[in-house]
Amino acid sequence: MVSVTRQASMxxxxxxxxxxxxxxxxxxxxxxxxxxxxxxxxxxxxxGYDPGKADGLMGPRTRRAIAAYQRSHNLPPTSELDEPTxxxxxxxxxxxxxxxxxAPAPPPAPWRTVLAYLRYYDTQPSQLVPYLTEHFRQGAxxxxxxxxxxxxxxxxxFSRLSWRIERVEPQEPEAASEATVExxxxxxxxxxxxxxxxxxxxxxxxxxxWLINDLKSLAxxxxxxEPLKPESTTADR
Length: 237
Known about the structure:
Keywords: Membrane, Transmembrane, Transmembrane helix
Pfam families: PG_binding_1
InterPro entries: Peptidoglycan-bd-like (IPR002477), PGBD-like_sf (IPR036365), PGBDSf (IPR036366)
Strand order of the largest sheet: 4-3-2-1-5
CATH class of the largest domain: Alpha Beta
Number of domains: 2
Protein name: Peptidoglycan binding-like domain-containing protein
């Protein structure tokens, strides 16, 4: 009788032990689960990195998938969910830079429009359409003016070698509706290099925009022009 009772007690103790072990393992697994890990597993799986089941546990398979993702995105292959990796996966918000008030718009300067003309005329005339009046285009539609300009440039084998802005009037154009910009430049036409002075007439389109309305070109001698005044604007290619 005592032996049976002892055997029953041992069985009960064994059952209780197994139950405790099972509960401990279940609790440990639940404790080890992490919501971020589960999200990462889902993302990595969708991206083709095979982290295994999205169970929220950082097992060897998940770590290998993380390392593979890191290597393919030029991140240190730590196999950990560090800050750069979470940010690359879109699970960590990128801190926003403090809002900086916009810089005040520069005062309107007619020479800026002329500078665009000098930069783009012989290479990308299509870039100049916003800077030209219809009068300058002689009434031609923009695409027609571009086509004709390219044709003329090709026929002359024209290229502009260097330039400098010599005169801008008025020098304080804030209240003016018209302006004049004079440019001295070196150009090559049909293989011959020569100096040329160009006078641009501009009209104000709005408070910050000037448009080229007319252009007069004057050939000059190869002698160097008069020295520029200190406030003159220069540009070279």
